[in-house]
Design brief:
Layout: H1 13-31, H2 35-49, E1 52-53, E2 58-59, E3 64-66, E4 71-73, E5 77-79, E6 84-86, E7 91-93, E8 97-99, E9 104-106, E10 108-109, E11 125-126, E12 129-131, E13 136-137, E14 142-144, E15 148-149, E16 154-155, E17 160-161, E18 169-172, E19 177-181
Amino acid sequence: MKLPIHISEKLSVKDIILKYCIRDFLLGIVRSFPSAAGVLLRMIAYKLIFKSCGKGTRIAEFTTIKFPERISVGDHVSFNEYDWIDGDGGIDFGNYISIGPRVTMASFEHGHIKADIPMKLQEKEMRKIVIQDDVWIGAGCFIKGGVTIGRGSIIGAGSVVLKNVEPFSIVAGNPAVSIGKRD
């Protein structure tokens, strides 16, 4: 059975060439460029492509950022090695955010309601992620689309965040639950 390709985004040939060929090729090159020179190249490249980007953004080697044009980044946000950030449904980062290595954020969910249609062919549900100021996200976390992480929160390493996190909370686990508050 041959399935049709399903793309809900309206694309012109120009979009495909500029957005998905040239841009992604260049970002793929700077993605793995080593050392401080690589951080500088990524900072310059993404500052041009992000929806908005504040000062002091740091993007480490091997970070993958999909749909950067739908992502807003505040001041002093750091992405670490092997982070996978999918901004398809939109992501807003506040200021002074530390994101540990191997963190995954998916701002969409695959459609799965209609059992008579293969999931691959169902439209994605776009779900914006909001991460407020002064948040620390530990290594290996997963942040689900539609979640807001409140100001001053800490997300423990390896946590799976499926629900909103109250400001100044400390959460951990799979699924992440509150284990404390910051005073």
